Amino acid sequence: MTNTPVATLHILNKRPEHHRFRACLDAMAPGDVLLLIENAVLALADAGVHLPEGTRALQADCVARGLVTRPGEKVELLDYLGMTHLTDRFSRLISW
After folding, report:
1. Pairwise CA distance, residues 34 & 28, whole Å
2. What is the mean pLDDT of residues 37-48?
3. Residue 14, exposed/middle/buried by CB under 10 A (0-12, 13-18, 19+)?
4. CA-to-CA separations, 56 to 4, 38, 49, 96, in angstroms, rounded
5. Is 0.70 topped by the overall pTM?
6. All domains of the chain, ordered by start, with CATH?
7. What's the CA dihedral at 63, 69, 75, 78 to 10 degrees?
């Protein structure tokens, strides 16, 4: 029997300077996906924060904070339906 790692969706709502923001990034494994919601989308305006490839952000929270993705940053913006579809793809979710 092999122990195949299960990909995890990390749903992060903490500001980039919050200790859980760094803890979340440190906990990510290959195949995991990061979804930024609420105040975590502020990371899109912080050039000092490196976001993992494949990061997604909730569009409504970006709009509410007047944010767009950084130039060169490949962050997919999701609406609520897209967020629902994303959460449905993962059997393991962690909210930070």
Report:
1. 8
2. 92
3. buried
4. 24, 12, 14, 15
5. yes
6. 8-95 (3.40.1260.10)
7. 10
